[in-house]
Specification:
By secondary structure, the chain is of the alpha+beta class. It is built from five helices and seven strands. The longest helix is centred in the last third of the chain and has 25 residues, at about 85-110.
């Protein structure tokens, strides 16, 4: 399932209330860079805010509110706040486990690790060893 979320910034500037938002599929950013993008400029661009304006400066001083989560990200939003680090770590772990399950399917016809926790642990260990050997 894709990780989709709406990010909104509620702020006031010169007596006017604003609530610019953007709905993002986060998987493509995480797959490309391993981390979430800086959301302030994305929200500003999507909502036609000049990145060199006072409005944008005020916007950056306010926390981003996250809503309508779909996928794994839903587990990491509490009261509209996203635990970025925990979500990124869980996303990476899920991605690795999915790739390892693909290997288990190809070579051993295993469709999930729930009945094979030792195999999962062995594959994770091999993955970690491979990562260490590359450095």
């Amino acid at each position: 399932m894709k990780n989709i979320v709406t990010a909104t910034i509620y702020f006031s500037f010169k007596g006017k209330n604003y609530s610019p938002s953007i709905t993002l599929e986060l998987d493509k950013y995480l797959a490309a860079t391993g981390s979430l993008p800086d959301l302030y400029p994305l929200i500003a661009n999507e909502n036609n805010f000049d990145l060199y304006s006072y409005e944008y400066e005020v916007m950056q001083s306010v926390d981003i509110h996250f809503s309508q989560p779909q996928g794994l990200i839903a587990d990491f939003i509490t009261n509209g706040q996203l635990d970025h680090d925990a979500f990124q770590a869980a996303w990476q772990k899920q991605r690795i486990e999915s790739r390892l399950l693909d290997i288990a399917k190809r070579h051993m016809n295993i469709n999930d690790f729930t009945t094979q926790p030792q195999l999962k642990n062995a594959l994770l260990d091999a993955y970690q060893q491979g990562k260490q050997d590359r450095h």
